[in-house]
Amino acid sequence: ALRAAAEAEEDEAARLGAEVDRLQAERAAVEEQCQLRRSDIQSREAALQDLPAEVRSTEEELEGLRARLAGLDEALGPKGARLSALRAERSAKKERLAP
């Protein structure tokens, strides 16, 4: 009877040992996932901190492009009018020369 009780205790200890090992491995995996999530959060927070500077830079670039557009529109105005006049003259000449 003592031998059977000792064997039962050994079996239970082996089962418990295996269960503890499995739980410890699962805990380590979950702990690793937590660390990965913490790192992900930290990198996203860092990216968010950089965002205002990126927005300012993009707004400044947009302002520069708008100023350039305004300058081009200003330059195109008289040249576009002159081109339209030249085309009208050419059409009129072609009509006069046509038989």
From TrEMBL:
It comes from the Eukaryota. Residues 6-75 form a coiled coil. Keywords: Coiled coil. This is Uncharacterized protein. It comes from Alexandrium catenella.
